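Morning F.,

Quick status update on the modeling queue. The single chain you submitted on Monday has been processed. Sequence for confirmation:
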Amino acid sequence: MESSRTDIAAAKKPFYNLMMFPYPSAEGLHVGNMYAFTGSDIYGRFKRMAGYDVFEPIGLDGFGIHSENYALKIGKHPMEHAKVTEKNFYNQLHKIGAMYDWSRTVETYDPHYYKWTQWIFVQMYTRGLAYRAKSEVNWCPSCKTVLADEQVIPASRQGGEGKCERCGNAVIKKLLEQWFFRITAYAEKLLQNTRTLNWPEKVLIAQRNWIGKKEGTKILFDEIEIFTTRPDTIFGCVFVVLSPSHRLAGKVKEVVNPATKKAIPVFVDEYVLGEVGTGAIMGVPAYDDRDMAFAKRMNLPVVRAKLTDKVFGKKMVTYHLRDWLISRQRYWGPPIPMIYCETCGWQPVPEIDLPVVLPRIEDYQPKGTGVAPLATHKEFYETTCPNCGKSARRETDVSDTFLDSSWYFLRYPSVNNVIPATEPGSSVQVGWTPDQVRGDKQGFLPWDPEITKKWLPVDMYTGGAEHSVLHLLYSRFITMALHDWGYIDFDEPFPNFYAHGLIIKDGAKMSKSKGNIVNPDQYIDLYGADALRIYLMFTGPYDQGGDFRDSAMEGIAKWVRKVWRMALSTIDKQSNSSSAKVQTALAVAIKKVGNDIEKRRYNTAISAMMIFINAVGEERGQLACSDLQKFLLILAPFAPFMTEELWSRMGNKTSIHQQPWPLFDKSKLVVSTVQIVVQVNGKLRGTLVVDTAKALGQATVETMVKENQTISKYLSGTITKVIFVPGKLINFVVSSL
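Structure tokens below.
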């Protein structure tokens, strides 16, 4: 009965609800993915019931190292593997009950899509934001490719060398000529705009720290430029240290301190970073701990000179942020649309000739030599210069997967509006020719301008905080550039972002190496998607996550079956009355569930529904059909399949998911009851609705908790302490048996 297709053109109250799309890199989704998608979907369903025209699309971020490494591992061609994973992922995503608009999917490896990824690269180049340069770059010997700074887990977080965020192996430095995007041109705007974003503070802090703005002074020590935030300590400077990558490293042995006019030694050491400031620092051991440690190691003097306000240099602003290294020496990605001519230099592929289609080759394994697999295929790289017509060479590197995902949110609403959809089935087709993909005479842009004005920016974006300085930063940069070029009328893609938590298993993050991956398919087959959705949302606060446990999953499944039996009994009886207690419990539940969903407090929303079902049970199942319908409406975002079936059995001809959020009788809330929060070892385990008078007595509340089957199961062990806040909270401190 339910239709999730959104009428993009006719929508009067658009609400773009988007979840970060997944990497289809392995066998399929695990419950951690389902946890993230379900939480986003519940919010979208709630907003639709609140009167919005909700657009909730899905797709696959299928290009890149994640997918390619897995294909290499199992010995399958990445192009063929993409077909298999697309089918598997979409089958799984259909099962989980999300209201995706399946008429508008996006797959990054579809030539109709990456044509426009290449178009963005060309725009960057022609507007001075893409350039090629020789630089010391991060190299992963395992993935056999360069990495952007953002794709290296810093040594400070891991100890020792930096690690590849893809494979976890140590990253080394290599001097290579690569393509870069000038994201540093937007450093200040990226920083200032964080003030306007409704994002978790931890994500904003991560971006601000990564951008790393520092205001200081640039001082010239002979031919060496020094950047310092403490120019007032210059009289205490007794040495200069250069980073190993500094252009004068090893060439200058001594300089003159412009303040003291004394000659001081110049050293080279790794504790000075080439990418910070000017790659050179003035050593002031009396005022800096690192300088002091270096001075002691080198047996240098320490001068505690007085501070000065005399100016010896010019004010300067520096940023930690470095330009985005965009090229990759791999196969599975969109070829970089550039051509090198000995006469004309680097030239962009003309827009009319896009896309540069990734050809199927059999020697697709990464070489590890600094060149990509396409570099051995003359049929690919031999071409002519678009400027002078002479023989030329096509770029054989592919672009970073984060470029693919930096703009996908712009594409979704315009799928089928600008470029015809691909053939049904798989988006990956062996043997694509450029002429087949260039059949897009309907539009010049990858998105319809009018549709984009109507639907963007994204109203609610949900995803992982681990992408704070990767996808979330890159998307902001690309959006700002497109805005400045006049292609879109907003400069922030996600004004509202919610960072979901992480589902763990047996106390650890899910990973194949630990053998604790949980496949949702087996639980859906055993308990149904609704029970799994509810369980995942009940494991803990959505922004914190929880620990997946089979025993707890069984408990939720029992509750779902209980709701099913209660609903069928009510339908059979055709009851038309509910007790005052049940009516009150329903009013409380409607109000709380609505408020909690808006705040993403799904676990407490479920607790409120459990309290209502307990109240019905205490009244021997007496429930009016009209009240059952209201309860099904608030349960519907969590359990879309079961509620749709029960709604239909009650004689309704339209989908439950097309109904408005139910109203409640406010007069029913004016009663002498309060809600007691029940915790065990500080973790929420449920709530109790208690008469106000009884809620003041600790012994009475303790007894009620122990008699409540849903909550009492968490009290196994020895109760060592009870913390009681009259009328508000009770917390049992329980030690393990």
